[in-house]
Amino acid sequence: MTQHATQQLDAIHAMLSAGQRNLRVEKHSLILWGLTTGLLLFFRDDLFTDAQFPARATQAVAWLILLIIVISGVSLLDWHLTRQVKQSRNESWSFIHRQVLKVTWLLMSIGTLYTFASAFLGGANLTVSVWLVLCGIALYIHGLFSEELLEWIGVSIISIGVGILLLRLEYTHIKWIASAATGIGLPLLAFMLDRGSIRSAWFRVTQTLAWFACVLTLPILAMLWKP
Questions:
Q1: pTM for the complete prediction?
Q2: End-to-end alpha carbon distance in the chain
Q3: Which among 22, 107, 111, 125 has most CB atoms closer than 10 A?
């Protein structure tokens, strides 16, 4: 096969791949949700303490109200910024994009309701893991219709969520890792996206390992240096 024919086949393959993965995840979305989730996880214990809300029911309602306000506010800001970007590119909201957004909202609703229930049942470690797993699932679903790297990082975040439970880490360490996975990991992912370029599996593995290194370095150092 000549080099010209090979180039034509590669171009056709790229076009087909672009048609199948026509959902575009904007950088600002990953940055907004990453920083918001990271801050909420990191300051989780300082927001509503037992001294402020002695009754579990009151604390549960406070968390429910806070999450509804934060998620709604960030969603509106994300939607506004995304609409502006799409208008500048003369794009419309595709059917797939709308359906994926519905799934994302469903996952966030599950996380919110679980957080509300955990205020009665306890188990802060499990709550953090649940949010990480839901975040990973959301990224993976986006990746199915968007960029392949989202799938890899989605699975990575799911593995972190499960791993922190299996390793039976202290809650403080779990909080550091979870905050870094979202607060650092998602903004970092925003700048790692390559707009659907076709890459080899080894290249994706290298990207994923680099992402792990950037995300876990600070929490691990904090765990080792903690007096």
A1: 0.85
A2: 64
A3: 111
Query: How far is Cα of residue 11 from the mean position of the Cα atoms in its chain?
Result: 31
| Number of C-beta neighbours around residue 144 at 10 A | 15
Please give the chain's pLDDT, 227 residues, in tens.
Answer: 455 545 444 443 443 344 445 678 889 999 999 999 999 988 887 777 777 777 878 888 888 999 999 999 999 999 999 999 888 888 888 888 889 889 999 999 999 999 888 877 766 678 899 999 999 999 999 988 888 899 999 999 999 999 998 988 888 899 999 999 999 999 999 999 887 667 788 989 999 999 999 999 999 888 888 65
- Both tokens of 89, joined, read 């590119």
Domain spans of the chain, in order of start: 23-225
Round to whole Å and give the CA distance between 70 and 5.
Answer: 53
